[in-house]
Each structure stands twice: as C-alpha cells, then as structure tokens.
Fold each of these.
Amino acid sequence: MISPRGKWIALLLTSLLLLLLVFAEAASGGKKAASGPGADEVRVALSKDGRIPALSSVGGVANGMPDDSMKLFAEGYFGTTVPEYVSFPDFESARKALDCGKVSAIWAADVTAEYLEQSGEYVSFAPAETPGGGEERFSFAFAFAPESEALRSNADSFLAALKALGGLERGLIGETWTFPKEMLSERAETSPKKAGRNFYIGVTGAVPPLAVYEGGTAHGAAAEIAGALAESLGYRPVFVNLQEETAYVSLMAGRVDMLCVGATSENHSLTTPKYLTSTGYFGVKEYRLLMRKEGRKVSGWMNVIKDNLISGGAYRQIISAVITTAVLMLLACVIASLFWLALKALSESPKTVLQKTAAGLAYIFRSIPVPLLLLLLGGVVLAGVHIPLLIPAALGIGLNGAGLLYEASASGKDAEATAETTENDADLDDTGPNAYGFRQRLRFLASRPARRTAVTMLQWTTVAGCIGVRDLAEVFQTIGNRTMYPLFAIACCIVFYLLAVIILELLPYAERKTA
Amino acid sequence: MSKKKGQQAKGKRCALRVVLIAAAAVLITVLCGFFVLLVKVKGNLSYVYNYFVKTKGSLSVEYHAEAGTAKGTPKASPETEPEKYLNSVKVIVNGSVVTEYERSRAIEFTDGLIGTNTPNRGILTFRGNYLRSMSSFGTVTGAGEHLAKDWEVKTGRFLKDDGVNYWSGNGWTGQPLVVGWTREQRSKMNLYEEAKAKEGLCEVIYPGMDGMIHFLDLETGKATRDPIHVGMTFKGTCSLHPDMPLLICGSGDSATGPFGEQVSARIFVYSLINGKKLYEFAANDTFAPRRWHGFDSSPVFAAEADTVICPGENGVLYTVRLNSKYDAEAGTLSIDPDEVVRYVYDSKAAHDRFEASESDIGSGSESSAVVWGRFLFFGDNGGIFQCLDLNTMQPVWVQDLGEDINASPVLEISEDGSAAIYVGTTLKYHTSRYHTGEACVYKLNATDGRIIWKKPYEVHTVSGLAGGILSSGASGSGAAAPYIYFAVSKTPSVNTGYLVALNKDTGEEAWRKELPCDAWSSGCLTYCTDGSARLIQCCGNGDICLIDALTGKTLDRINYGANIESTPAVFGNRLVVGLRSEYIIGARIE
C-alpha cells in the first residue's frame, strides 16, 4: 500500500521521467521523416523512366480493405514497391502521419491531392499511365440504404437541377463553395425552422475538401449540397461523423439516412452493391501519391510545449476532452452503481433463478472486453437512436464496472469494506455477505474495492475513442499526430490520468481529514 | 467402512473423469476431422462424393463419318444453320447498329501462319499462329531427352476486383511471346544497351497477372528493357503484330480501388518502340450482353486489312481498323483507329443453360479464335461455336457443343482443301447431382460445322473449378501427324487428369497417361533434328514433363513446386513459362 505522500512522489517522478524523455528527443531533433526516397527523388525518377521508385511506406484512409490488400492496390496502381502499408481512420490522421514521418507517402483522390498542394507543403505524383487515362474512374455520390429508393430519386432530381445550373462545375476544389444564385433563393424558402424530423447525414472525412467534419459540424461542397438536399426535402440536416471503414455499416444500421461521400462506379461490377447511390456529383480521374515537399523536424522544447498545448487551439481541445472524460467517468460510475444495486437486489432474492441470473449477468458484464461492449452498444444496439456517443460509452464502461463491483461484493470484500468504513456503526446487520441494508450498500460504494473499480473504469475511458468519443486519450493522440510529436502528447495524457487516479484514491482520505 | 466408501467414491470420480476426458477427446477429434474434411472438399460438403469416388474417365467415341465429306468455302448444313441456334445478331459500326455491313478493306488470310513467314519471327500469338497449331518454334538440337532448370525471374501480384484477394504470377492461358528482333529494329527500340547490342537476341514478352508487361532475354532471363506498368491484370496471351512492333493485350479482370469502384477490363495497344500506350478500347461496353468484361482471348491481326480482331468475354467480338503508320528506318509507329465493329449475338440455347445453372447471363469468349480465308471460328462460354464471315460480320454456321468452351480451337487444313477444327469443352452446365458429367473433345468439319467425332470424358466439376479440357490441342506433324494431344482435368478423380493422344481420324486414344493433378496448360509439341516428336506438358503440381509423343513415355520431369497454369513458349532448345508463385522460369531441353 502506497501512502498518499508516496503517490504524489510517484506522480512527480513519472512526470520528471517523461519530461526527460521529451527533452532528450527534442534536443536530438525529434523524429525524422520516414526513410526512402523524398519528393525530389520521386520527381526525378518519374521524369527519367516514368516509374515511381520503391517507397518505404504508404498510408491512407482505412476503407474496409485489409492493409495487405491496400498494399497490393498501391503497388499495382502506382507501379512501385511498397514494403509497408498503414491505414488511418480518416484522411486528416493520414495526413498527420505523413507530417510526422510515420509514412513516406499517402494516397489521395485527385481532388484531395490538388487541394492539399495549394498549401505549398505537399506535392503529388500520379503514375505515368493509368487505365482509362483521362476518363473518370468513378464519381462521388450520395449513398442510401436499399429501401431508400424514393430518397435516391429525389437526390438525383436535386443533383440534376444543380448540374443544369452549372452548380457542379465550378468552385468544387476548395472549402468555400457556394450554391448557384438561382438555388440560393429557393434554399432560403425552405427554412430549417419549418423542417420536420432530423435528417442524419454521415460524413467520413475521407475526401477533403468535399466533406470535412470539424468542430462538431461538416463543411465542404458535398456537405453543403447534402445539407441543401435535406432541407429541400423538408428535413433538418444533422451531420454525423463516421469513419470511412464503417460508414456503410452505419448506413445499413440506420445510424444515418445518407452518406455524404459515397462512390458510384459507371463501370460494371460483378456484385450488386448492397446500397443505393445517387448520380455522381464529382468525378475522380486518378489517385495520386501525396508527399511532403520537405521533411520536418521537431525543434526546441519550448516549441514542443507550445505546439502541443497551446497553438492550433490545443488548449481548448484539451479542456473540452477533460470535461468529456470527467462527464463520461461520472456517468459510468452512476450507471455502474445503479446496475450493481439492481444485481445485488436480484442476488438477495429468495428465488434461485433470480440469484443465478444476477450472478450470470455480472459475469457477462465483467467478462466482455470493454472495447467490444462499446462497439456493440455504440455501433449496433444504439446506432439508430441518435443519442450522444457519451451515453453508449458510459453504459459500456458502467456495465463492466457493475460486473466488477458485484464480483467484489460477492467475494466477501464487501463485508471487509463495510467493516473498514463502519466499524462503529450500530446499524450494521452482520448476518452474512449478501444480507445487509441499503446504507451498507452505499458505504460499500465508498469503500476501497469500489474505489479500485472506479480506477479501472477511469482507465477504460481511454478506449471511448473507438466509437468516436473525443476523450482525453483521443484528443492527445490527435494533437500528437498534428504536431508530429506523439511522445509529448502521450506523456501529457499519462500525467493527466495519474493525477486523476490519485485524486480518486485520495478522496476518502481528504474527507476524513476535513471531517 | 467409511474409508472403503470414500475409496469407492474416489474411484467413481476417477472413472467419471476418464469418461469425460475420453468424450472430450472424441468430440475434439470429430470436430477436427470435420474441419479437415471441409478444407479438403473446399468448404462444401456436397463435394464429398467427388473427393472419394472416381468417374469412368475415358468414354466411347461417337463417330459420324458422313460429317467429314463437305469441303471448300464454309457454308451451313441443315444442322448448323445459324437461325437454329442464334435468336438475333447485331452488328454495330462505330457505335451505330447497322442492318448490313461490308468491310471497307476486305480481310482474307492466306494461311493464318505467322511468325515463320513474316517480318517478325517467333511465337507472336497464342499457339504461334492463327491456326493455333504452332505449339513450338524451331527444332530441338540434340537428343531432346532431358530438361534442365536455367533461370528464374521474380514477378508479382495484383489485387482482385473483390478488393481482398489477389492474382499472382502468370495464369491461364498466359503463353509468353518470343520474338527475334533484327539489329535495325533493336536499334530503334527502348531496349537496354546490352540488349540492343546482343546479336540474335530473342526477347520474351510476357504480360503478367501483376499488371506489368515483362521483357526478358530468353537466353539469360535478364530484363531487356523496363517493364510496362499497365495497372490491370493479364491472364491470357497477348499478340504481336506480324509486321511491326505493335503489341495488343487484353486484361482478364477488372481492377478495384479504395472506394470500391470497379474499373472495367479492356484491351491495350502498345508500341514496343518506346513502350507507350497507343490505344485502349472495349472497357465498360454498353453494347455488351454480359456485365463481366475480360479479354483472355489472344487477338488476331489481319495485317493486310490493318485490322485487329478481338473476341471478348463480355460477349462482343471486336474488329478495329488500326490505320497504322510504321517507319522502320525512323523508328516511328502510330495508329489512328477507326471502323470499330462489334458483333453481338444472342443464343437461346446458351440462355437456357445459364438459367438452369444460375450462371451469369450472357455468352463470351475466353478462348482464342482461329482463321481460315475470310472466316473466323470461335467458341463461347455458352457452348456455341460458330464460323463468322469477317467481311460481312454475319454467322456462316453455328454448332452447339452444349458446354463451356474454354480451350482454344485448332484448325488443320488438308491438302485436299478440307479443314477440320479440334476443340474441347469443360463441364459447367450438364452436371449430375454428384457434380460429375461429360466434357468432350470434338472434331468439327470447318466447312459446315458438323461434328465428325466426339470423344467424351467423365469429369468432376467442384468449387467453381470446371473439369474437362482447358488446354488447347497440340496438333502433331511429321512422325506425330496422326495424333492430336489434349490434357483433360479432374478425371478420373477430382485431383487427377489425363494426357491423351487422340487419333485425328477416329478420335480413339492412341495412348493415355494419368497425371497426378490438373493440367490447364496446353501441351507443346516440339521436334528433334532426327524427326522424333516430344510433348512438353506443364502441370498444376509444378511438374514440367518431357514426353515421347509417339509412345507417351515420360523421358524427364522437373518440378517447380508451384501451379503452372500458363502455356510455355518453346523456342528451339529453350522453354519459358510463368508460374502462379510469381516467377517466370527458363529451362533447357537437352
């Protein structure tokens, strides 16, 4: 058992160690770009013999294809050798990985490559020749569930009108896209205030600048068009951030009514797609390999702190994530307590069936890995309910916590725990581990085993990101990728969590001190 | 007393434990056995029968003496009238359906022989020429009784259209081309300096399933120039123009991408002077009756009419006038294609078969066509074999062979003016409830399409892998002139096959060898300087067998440990072929 003072010393030592690591790496210049040819070498090789030289690693948006298959795609399409392929949940993460030097190049649709090249930081390369040459390889379109034929038909009409006005021929590259004037007035008539039910539009962020989800909303030409389409149908558009890899599953599960950036292929397919697509609104002719013009290095520890904690609105994200994580933890604790109380009540029932049911449920709750519970609740069971993702995340963690609490209480630790906190309590009904009153249960929730369970639940909050909750771990990972310095971000996150654990464990101590 | 009771209880518990452990062991063994069985029968228990029972194998020949009498210019007999089998025929010229068509520059093949009597010399198309009868080039010096491994070159793989699996190495029919360029030709090409300077260079041209066209020195296996990166997979065999360095190759499968798009397979035309793409066509054809696009068929160049003929697996037969301009001295080559003609037909017999077998609707050609005069002969996946007048694009006769025609036909013209076609089928439609049925070798009268003889084999078809004849016949000459050789897959057991020498006149077997595996690769007949005939057969187990063509005796065998679906190119004493294990290998016949 570590004393309260020991815990603070441990936190201090860990923080110092992590800081030392950070300084050491910052002093050495940080991570250099991935090995392999740089942009200049690729340019020279292409101009010389029309071939892209072997690349050390290529990355891209995870799209449901296994990494090995995407590696083959990259090799076959770009005509080069790719020893390693790495998937990322969205394009922004892939771009950050390129910036970090985790990969030497990322593939991108031509529209994305052209958009990013405008920044001057990137350069893109296409293979010398591809099948079809100047033909469109496919078109981006809106995707619908198979039963949404009427929606698809409406979308086709809407896009046809937009095309007739030239609305799809100008200004699509870039984030600032506006409707043709003729449609703006029409759009104004369909006020969102008059709109009926919410219309959920899935945005994956796989194809910037067509549709990008940022700061809780979507923007980009495709998002604009999708929103206007929803309004024209009398709905209120609500954008939902999805990952490309699971976007179609979300569509089928009813989590969204429409995907903003699906793909339609004019070419034949052996199998009929399981979803519907509208007519295309933007054609893609080719893919390109996107590389950084110059490699970047981490320079100076002050810059590291500034980049990771201050600039680019990092502090806002961190504060928001701290609040999110705290709320998540609170909700999870409440859910765990309520479920534990319910299970406990069942277990004390005179009927054996109910006792066994309680034990079985508790066993299931604590045995299923929390990430799976989150995916099940967030991605399937509650997918079509359109509630904040915090709820399924808290429910998943809380159920696991309830299972753990039940195990602790059933194994006799409750008696030990209540003894710890109620040594002088005359109301104690000491007739067995499963027979005690409501007050004892509440005391158990303040006991050491329950605190340990709370710490475990706190640790599980770090996986809430797997269903899209912007928790502390998720935010620090994003910041680390953006700043090309994941070590500092992870170190900060560790310190935050250590601090939270210490506070959680020292709460009763503080309570006793102040009493 | 209580001690005794305790011992008894302990004994009972012990026995119970033993019984439980034994039961668990039995259960695990049964489950493992079931799993192994599932693996063995390719995941489908209905194939269990096929993996434990042999078919009858070779069956009796059906002979029709009267069918062999017609001679001269092709015309239909009462049994082969096109109307009998084709519901409709459509000719589309430059995108417009026409009721009548007459080719502006008539096609007339004098003999269909290329590679030996044309400026480009070598193996220029599948099976050497447009009769598909030249299964090797040149003669073997020496005894020709041994095979020796020589060199190997690594190739690669390409993502399949399902976005998960991949094509690897070289596939069916996948015969490499081998051409001996002249010094002048070499000097104008984008060959490496070493290759340019090498006198007598024989260049291997090999499109692979890795989406690349590889160029190798036949003698050493060294690259002669940069490979061409196409970005689509090639399974079939390409063709080289007989007069100019113009390569045409059809991709065998569509390509996919990160957004699940399907990029349609198509036919590519490349200049071998600089490796640049000159033209591509046949992608995503709206006139095609079949959604599946694939172009495994080896195209035919009608050099005098400056036209290329390409049967497609999408159910369209294309002819494209190239308007080629080749200046050998200047080293320039260009084409300006026009007069794109499509021939599309609809067959009720094939439709009925597709529907009965729940197959993809529509017929297409995977096999390569043969030519005779102005006529083209080709078969399709629906079992329809037809003779087409290339100048009017109208069918002359049609024969219904009833099963999938994957193997390319072989045309043999006799001195008396008669011509015969040898072609085999694979079992796809008329399967029994046990997934067995007949696949046959046919001899057809090329004049009227009637069946002269039919040699059936009872074969298995499992897991989408059809049994029967996927290899093209190797027509003997010289000492082997009476025979034609075929490999038959999945007979008598599901994992074995036959290699047979059939008498050309009667269809009876002169000899038959049982192979320990499938053989999709076509046998190559080559001849030693003393006139003795050798048959080279590549097998699914990686064997390359050297066989005395007259007796069927195996003279030598080398093994590469990987499936060989491709047909080798045999050029003098050398042999080159691609493996599914991503290697192109060179071997010597000694």
Note: Chain B has a mean pLDDT of 94.
Amino acid sequence: MKKILIAISLFLLFNFAQAQDLVKKIPSNAFTVATIKGDNVFKLMFVKDFNESFVGKKLLTGTSKSLDKNFTSIEDFGINLEKNMYYFNQLSDSITYNCFLIPIKDAKKFETLIDNKEKKFTQQGDIRTMVLPDSTSVIKWNNNMLYFVTGSISSSFFADPAKSARYGIKDIRFQNDEAIATDSAAVAVDSVATTDYWQEIPPPVITKSHKKTKTTAKKATGKKKKSTKKKTVVRPKQEVEEEPIADAAMDATEAAPAAERVNADYDLYQQERAEQEAKKKRLAFTWMSAQAEQIFNGTYESIESNKSYASSLDNTAIAELWVSSLQDVYNAVAPAIGTYGKAGMMKGYGSLNAKLYMDKKSFRISTGLELAQEQADSYKKIMNRKLNKNFLKYVNSEKALGFMSYSIDTKAYLEEFPKILKQTYGSFLGAKMEEEIDLGTDLFSLLLDEEAVSKVIKGDALFVINGLKTKEVTYTTYEYDDDYKQKEVTKTKNETLPDFLFMFSSEDHRLINKLIKYGVNKNYVSVENNIYKILEKKSPIDIYFLIKDGIVFFGNSLSEMQGISNNQYNNKISKLHKNLLSKNNFSFLFNAKNLVGKVPDSEIGGEETAKKFNSTLEKMGNVYMKSNPIKGRLVSADISAEIPNGHENALKYLFSLIENAAK
Amino acid sequence: MRLNQFYKFLFLVILIPFLSSCFEVIEEISVKNDGTGDVVLTINLSQSKTKVASVMLLDSIQGYKVPSKQKIQQELNEAVAYLRKSEGITNVKSTADFNNFIATISFTFKDVSNINNITKNILAQQKIKATNTSSYTYNKVTKTFSRKYQAISTAKTEFNKLKAKDKAVFNGATYTSIYRFESPVTSSTNPASNISKSKKAVMLKSSIMDLINGKINVSNTIQLSK
C-alpha cells in the first residue's frame, strides 16, 4: 500500500502534453479540473537540474529507500514529463469520484514502482488493472496513460431509505421492535435489488452465504434479516470466526435478562451495521470499476467541449484549476449541510478558475469568476470609475511601504447592491420572502439619495504608508538615590511609526463641513491653517485631516499635511505603482524592501529577532494584488510576488526557498 | 466605517506589527526593626504606552482578549478587597493611571510572614498560575531578613509553549525588588543584589525573561547589624 501511495504521490508532483493530451479523457461533466503542465514546468527547470536539486534528491533517495530500488532520475518513474497531468472529480448525489490522469512514457518503469509480491495486477489486452487493498481505489493503465480513481459514497444519499433500498442497503439504527415494519418493506425492495443489481455485477470480494439457523435466531430477537440478502453479504475474512460467537449470544437472548439482551442487541446492531457498510463499499467499488472502464474504453464527450473550461486555459500557465460553478458547488454540498439553500444559493455565479504562472521575475496567481449576465452588468456599472488621478501626487514610491486603493461608483453601487443581494441570497430566504425583499430594496432606494451620497463619497480611496517616521515620546520611569529611594522621572525615547495617508474624493463638502463645524464646537476637533486635528484622548497617535481639491485627506504626520496644504508634497511615483493604481479598480502593494533596517531593533524585540525580520524582508520583492477589468462576464484578479535579483526564475527560487527552510 | 472602527483598522495595520514592549515590575518592602512594615507593588507600562493604548482599542490581540479599562480597574479593586481581608494587612491603597499605564498597590503589614503568598493568592484569584513561590521571614532576634524564592518548573514549560510572537512581549521587561531597613545591612547573600550607599537598602534588578527561564534566582538572606 505504501509503495502505491508513493507512486501516486509522485504522479501528483509531476506530470506532463501535446500529442494526445489526456484532457480528451476527462468527461464533460467533470466538476473540477486541475492541471499541472509538465512541459512548462520543465522549461523552467531541466529534469537533470531537478534531479540534482535538494527536493529532487530527497524525493529520489526517499523513494529508492522505501521501495528498495535505485532511482537516479524522476524519469525512472515512467511518467511522461512533457505532458499534462490532470486531476478531476465527478459529483453525483450518491458518489463522488476523485480521479487522476497521468501520462505514461514507459509502462514497464511504472510497473516496477508498484511491483510487489502480494499485489499483482491483472492484464486484459494492453490494459492493466490493479485494485488497491480494501478496494477503495482502482488503478488502470496502458502504455500511454494511467488512471487512478477513488470513490466515496455520499452518506446523505444512503440515509434516505427509499434510495438506499434500491441498492439493497438499509439504514441501520440501534433501536428495537418498531423496526420490523419498515424492515419488511425494505426486504421486498431488497429482493428486487438483489436480482437486478447484485447478481448482475458480482462483487469482487469474498462472498459467503450464511447459515439458515442464524437467520432464525435473528427473527426470534425481533431483528429481521432476509436470507436473500445474506447470500451476497461480503465480510472481511477475520469476521468469519466471530460469527458463531455472535450466534451463540443471540440464542442466549431469549432466556437472558433485559440488560444482557440489550448488549446482545447492540452486538447485533454493530454486526448489521458493518454488513451495510461493507455493502456500501462494495457498491462504491462496482461503480468505480465501471467508471474506470468507461474512461478507458468508452466514448463520451470530453471537457474540451465545455466553453467555460476551454476559455479558461492559458498555454503559459504552470498549473490551472477550473471549477464548473459556484452554484453547483453550493448545491453539491448543500444536502450534506442541510436541506435549505438547495433552491439556488449563489445564483449568478458561474465557473471559477485559477492559474499559476512562474517566470523570470515573479510568481503570479490569476483567478477568475464567471458571472451571470445580469450580475456582470451590475458589476460593470459599479466598476465604472477610475481612481482620482490627483491621488497619485501623494505616493512616494521611494519610501512607500505599501498601499491599497479601490474605486467604485458609489451611485451605481448603491443602486445595484440590493439587486445583487437579492440574487445571491434571495433563494436562501425563500420564495415567500421575495415580496419583503422587494419592499426592502425599494425602501433602501427611497431612504438613500444615491446621487447625493455619491457626491459626498465618490467611491475611490487610497490608503498609503509613505515610510516610517521616528517620533520622540515621553514615558515615566524611576530613578533611585543613594538610599534606593524611588524618584519618578520622565524620560524620552524614540518610537518608529509608519506615516499613513488616507484619501477619498468628495465633490460635495457641505455635509463634511457641517460635521467639522459640529466637531469644532464640541471640542472634538481643533483647526489650524485649514488642517484639522482630531482631539481623541484615547488615541495614542495624532490624526489630522484636511480637504483640498475635492479630496479629503487623513494622516498622522503634520508635516505631510502641511506639505499637501502648501502644494509642496514630494511625490515620486514609480511606473509600476502608477500603473497599478490608475489602471485597476482595486490594488494592493507591499514593498518589503523599503522596510529593511528601518525599524529599530528594540521595537521588534531584540537584535536577533530584528536580524531574522530584516533578512526575510530582504528576500521579498514587491507583493501586489490587482483586479482586472471585467471581460465579458468574467471578473478576475491577480496576485503577484516578485522574486529577488540573482535567481534565474521563480521555480528555481521556490526550490531554493524550500532548501533553505529545510536546513 | 465608524471612526472607532477606522482607528482599530489603523492600529492593526500600523502599530501592532511591532509588538514588543518594555514594562517594569517593582516590589518595594520596608521592614522596621520590630518586623512591621510596608509594601508597594508597581507595574509600569509607560514605556510602551503607545502600543498599550493601541492594544486597548482592540477587542483582542494575537488571540488574547484585551481587558477594558473598567475590567482592569475592577480586578485591581478585587485585589484590594482581598488584601483588606487578609490577616495583618492594613492601610491598603491602589492607584491606576491610564494615561501612562502605571498601577500600584500599597499596604502595611504587622509581621513579615503576613505577606507570604500574597502575590500568589492575588494571581490565583484572577485565575493566573503563579510562576514562583516566595516566602519571606524576618527574625527579630538575629535581625535576619530572608526571601526564599523558587521558580515553579512548570512555568518555564508553559512559557515555552507560547508562540515566539507572544514571548517577545516579555523582551525588555524588568523586575526590581527593593528591601529597606531601619538598621544598616551588613551582608546580602544574593550576588546580583546591591546594597545602597546608606547601607539601609538592598536592590535586585533582573529581566523577567531570566526569571521565567530560571536563569536568575532572587532568593536572598540579608543580615542587619545588631
């Protein structure tokens, strides 16, 4: 088993595609598809380099050791490293299949991986099949591909007696005589199921028919079991010996006192439960085998024909993930978490995809979500705003530790928001609530003058940390005289604080001005040269604000505020920062390098911690996040992490990080 | 976003990442020749007041609930109430300065033995396990004052279970004990302790980290001139 698991996990790590891509083998109703693109991976790192890398060596020596073989290259595993490897799953109400499709280059080499004395595989034509111990998974392969499938039965499906009876499975509960009525009903269906199903596909595990005597014993205790069913009951070998004991216990029940009878009932219950579980397992195995057979020999429509899947692909990605739709995810999980919500929660959200890229400069993860047309239209309206260009004047790229910005159209947002809410959660509240939701939506619009609000808060904002500043603060401590008499003294120390600046656009200042006036009157706010200071005693730092050129600024640095007020702000925005901010509705950036060595050791917790802290920061490039413009019905966002100079590419950098971490 | 929430966001982003604080714990015991005396316990977080003030605005930090000003005051009051009921303890007072984050408790004792286990019991009341046991004795005849201190071994193990981030809070924290007497001190056995010029006081300063790790022991026997 261990060997097989190792073999499988190896395949999960690597994989590889062009001629006869295995994607053709993925059924069109696959729910999730994940791809690792072997050719792209090994463009960044030659197989030879991989074998010699820390991770590669660890893997090869580890596998060699546990399989008692000598592997010198990952090519020894027999996988085709130039093709794509796939994972996909298929969901149904009764079973979930988790499947892997791995391209094979040399089937002989692969077979040496799994070869062992106890476990032999069977061969039919050029297709080899191996069943994993416990019959939980099936592996099938030929000279070009390997298919691994494991299925898990849905317990909620079999909790429904009507459904489970179709497969001769009963939902066993520990109880007593009332069970008889339902039991006999189930039996009727059972016998049908027996002929229909069980005899049709004989279970591949040892079958054993039961003694008639046992059935009678059971009847006597009121726990019925039909002999028709018994004929096909599968039991693990070790259970065989236990049976007479159980039977004896049954026989004794008649004369036994109540407590013992309960015990015996419980034993019986356990036994019956185990029988039913074994049936479910066998059913899962039968289904799995049929599914694997279909993948190898059947003809069906492949996932390639799915437009959403096809359009999510990108040749340059290293790995890809595609999930058919959020709504489907929700509905698939919903029965397990409860009956509500089945009626289409998450309506309006389509497929989801994620792609990983690695190149010479960075790691990048791109994610996308498909929306329903209505939703997409709403988002387009909301996103129809660019960040106020004047904001860019207040970013100093040479010093900035990071920033976060967003721009939405407040008016459109307020108008569209109730609609989106209704679409997403409407069904959750139930059809009966629809009228109330409509009413709420109207009330919301009535109470809010969207237009007016959007003038006060236009919907774009920028939060930027333009470096750190040292500030002198006083504190109380004690000095001791010759007599060690305590004397309270006030000392000063330097504290390093980030200088933040927060700004948002506002056309209509009347409300804000009124608020300020109120604040001044109530002594919440003081004013000097148009710069307001919030008089909040609890706040450990001073916060200032001012309004200029249709922008409301908040910040903790008086000098910065004065600079803004006097048009003497020192701005040096880099191209990257400018593009990030001006081209996207949402952006976030963290520039670790600007933080290196800026924080005094004492503030981080000592020299040693500071050293670690700084060296971690030094190894980090810019990390940033941005939303992309909505394309058709697809909203998407990217997260990128730049790699430091001196590394050939992101994959090699990743390997070096792993190596360092392991040291 | 309400202003309060904005503040919270701000502190979380700009202040908390550098969380390591300096604080002082000071224990002063004045013992008269007849064995009566006074105790002043001080905890001073003033050096870290910016951070403490920021933390106080949050509900919880690094998974710990941040007590409110009211809660701190209440706990202080409970400690005072407990002391007032304790045998031989009188004149109990407490102060709390929430601008500089300094709190003190002071009281008078009839006999040195009255103060044994007081800290431990106060901590136990707040459901905090003490990290050490201390017992104080004063022999009027020989004029010897001694403190027996034993770190509880589990304290170190418990401390080591904390995340590095949480441990860092104790970096730079100090513990100072000062014992004052009417008669001049002739000897003090703890090598880390100092005798004042006037010879009437003994001081011992250590880092709280060293105390927790058991690197330093604050046991001492002080001999006064007869």
Note: Chain A touches chain B at residues 465, 473, 475-478, 480, 482-486, 493, 495-498, 500, 534, 536, 538-541, 599, 602-606, 609 (CB under 8 Å).
